[in-house]
């Protein structure tokens, strides 16, 4: 059956799947080897000089990695995909493949911390100019664009305020101005949105999060046109060396099989948690794109198939309130990262965004009492009860 005709849960299970031709092993083996024995010198020359597809050395690719890449390409409706050693490897490889000295980049002002560091501290050292704006308002992008703008980089939904950027409108504007759109779609996963279908040129994920789903692997993926992916693979990935290990690629594929059913539960749990928090007297504000009160709820409804499992909220009592909450939860784990089957909680001002000045943090809407939660797939009543008891500790302890 043509995988394009399959629905998501069938596709994620079967697409790109190969059964081991030697033993018939139902689950593909992990090709845990560094090198490949070649038939003869003619084959060695063809493969080593890139005249032919095949496997020679694991930094250049492995059958396990190749299977993962086929699956990602299918899930993102892309011509090709590249799997790499981390989400940051995906982002840095995609940006380095796209930008040259003297080029200009527009990116969101509220983005993943290390992406900000890459753009702000590293790329600028290589002569790449940048402007950071709130990309959820296209007018800001229009104002920032320059003749040398080559990339518009979007994170949607964004970390940690869950702002949604209209990918379709941004891509239309970018293409009219000779720029490419790269989307970090980590918070959505391919289950909730496909940026390439909306006109984006490249999509990247921290596969560490929802794609893996179990908190066991650090990995990243890039998907887009074959020409772009080929270039990202060679020379960029081959020379930067940010490869994914065969074992990690295999674990990732294991996790991905349940992506659809996990995401369904993440979404329904998160919606209930968000509604609970929005009505709680100790909560000042909830940032969840599934709430009609969220400023970009309408764009989320238009371009996503659900609102995901991530949200932030401002607890009363500022930094102190946030800290009491962190120390009071029992089901949620106090931990960075997200997208696991179990629920995680973090206090953004003192954890993920500690290195921002208070002024920049406030401007980005990351308030003192802002807590970010990754809602897991547990029974939602237990998650709500846990937050409720922790919030009553905040109420008791702050005056
Ligand atoms: C975690 C994350 C990254 C970085 O991914 P790693 O796998 O940790 O390198 C990038 N973007 C977003 C939105 C993330 O959540």
Automatic annotation (TrEMBL):
Gene3D superfamilies: Aspartate Aminotransferase, domain 1, Type I PLP-dependent aspartate aminotransferase-like (Major domain). GO terms for molecular function: homocysteine desulfhydrase activity; methionine gamma-lyase activity; pyridoxal phosphate binding; transaminase activity. InterPro entries: Cys/Met-Metab_PyrdxlP-dep_enz (IPR000277), Cys_met_metab_PP (IPR054542), PyrdxlP-dep_Trfase (IPR015424), PyrdxlP-dep_Trfase_major (IPR015421), PyrdxlP-dep_Trfase_small (IPR015422). The keyword Lyase applies. Its cofactor is pyridoxal 5'-phosphate. Pfam families: Cys_Met_Meta_PP. Keywords: Aminotransferase, Lyase, Pyridoxal phosphate, Transferase. This is L-methionine gamma-lyase. It comes from Clostridium bovifaecis.
